[in-house]
Design brief:
By secondary structure, the chain is an alpha/beta fold. 50% of the residues lie in helices and 11% in strands. The protein has 8 helices and 4 strands, in the order βαβαααααβαβα. GO terms for molecular function: N-acetylglucosamine 6-O-sulfotransferase activity.
């Protein structure tokens, strides 16, 4: 039984009448492993988090699945939400797997997807890959990383949270931002000093 120490409710199976219509599939009797949506800002060191998650044999980590979707705008938000519902509910289809496998960068950043794809290419059975992923999904913590405000609407995020998906927001360390700005200001001061010195040297040097 999972132990929750962060104040979030555990992944739960509610009665079908207690959920919204778009995320009813999130209710899976008997599945109580945590589901985590990792919202990572740029330069928030999320790659290190992903690398650590890839080392854990009871974690299914999937990197930005929605960036493989072919559309943009509101339609993309709907497709992204539906895809995440299928991921968290262990209900990915063959078409979903082919979509995930088409993004080589995402596959390379997910040890689990890399393993599933390699086994699929050896066996040539896509349904076997779907079944294996569903089996691992039901017995593992599922973590999906997505950039915030790019693929999902705030309403969708709220709905995921209400269904027990833990939302973790990674931001860039403000100390790093301050340090970078201080470095930039220091560089600008050195450049201005160098320009002033060169200008002074040019004034003191007689023309040929």
């Amino acid at each position: 039984r999972p132990v929750v120490e962060d104040g979030f409710p555990p992944w739960r199976a509610e009665a079908p009448g207690e959920v919204g219509p778009t995320q009813e599939a999130l209710v899976i009797p008997g599945v109580h492993m945590p589901r985590v949506l990792l919202l990572a800002e740029a330069q928030s060191r999320s790659s290190f988090v992903g690398a650590a998650l890839n080392q854990h044999h009871r974690v299914v980590y999937i990197f930005e699945p929605c960036r493989a979707l072919p559309t943009a705008g509101p339609a993309n938000e709907t497709l992204c939400e539906e895809l995440l519902v299928r991921i968290f509910s262990c209900g990915l289809t063959q078409q979903d797997l082919l979509l995930l496998f088409s993004d080589r960068g995402a596959v390379s950043r997910s040890a689990f997807l890399s393993t599933i794809e390699a086994q699929w290419r050896r066996s040539a059975s896509l349904q076997a890959a779907v079944d294996q992923m569903a089996l691992a999904c039901r017995s593992s913590t599922v973590v999906v990383k997505e950039p915030p405000l790019r693929s999902l609407s705030p309403l969708a995020l709220e709905s995921f949270r209400d269904q027990g998906v833990r939302l973790l927001h990674l931001v860039r360390d403000p100390r790093v931002v301050v340090h970078a700005r201080l470095q930039s200001e220091s560089l600008c001061r050195r450049l201005r000093l160098s320009v002033a010195q060169c200008s002074g040297l040019a004034r003191r040097t007689p023309p040929p």
